[in-house]
Amino acid sequence: MQHATSSHPPPNRPDATEAPQRQLPATSSTGSSELASLEVRLHRSLRQYPDFPSPGILFEDILPIFADHLLHQSLIRALELRVDKESLRPDIVVGLEARGFLLGPSLALRLGAGFVPVRKQGKLPGPTETAAFKKEYGEDYFQIQRDGIKPGQRVLIIDDIIATGGSAAAAGSLVKKLGGHLLGYLFILELDFLNGREKLDAPVHTLLSSQEEGASEN
Hints:
- This protein has 5 helices and 10 strands; from the N terminus they run αββααβαββββαβββ.
- By secondary structure, it is of the alpha/beta class.
- Strand 3, helix 4 and strand 4 form a beta-alpha-beta unit.
- Helix 1 (about 30-45) crosses helix 3 and helix 3 (about 70-85) crosses helix 4.
- The chain is globular.
């Protein structure tokens, strides 16, 4: 009896040394149904903490998703389905410090794209581009390495939450400084009442909306 090896896989199975193929929905209808089911499951996993980190703020906690490997898988699959639904085909996924780093590399692998981080000022080596964004008590700065994106590459920016939109807008400006074609922004959660998407000049895609006014970006 012949046994398959990595050098001689059975004819009906791919070579183990080949890159894994993307898992795509069979049809648009089945993909939409799967996405809706995943979104409900992910929404139920969120935790809320009233009056954190200060009185009057309802803190939306996404970390339970990452504590459960099945929920984590569901999240990455849902993000992949959202990208497919919107017909996005990025060459590069850009993740914002810090929680964009939890999402971006895994999604980039599923999409067959590269991953490039946007970090706070002074954290990246070599030549960088810089963009400022406003915070509650002043300004902060994002940077990206100058060779991270080539002119004309299609770029998708990802982060966990869109609140006021300032940090995402800064990341978008960095992509454009490097000559990238900004396809849009992708978030797990949107705090709708803060109208952050109005600051962004590319399409905004989200999986979930905040459960009630008063929530805050975590």
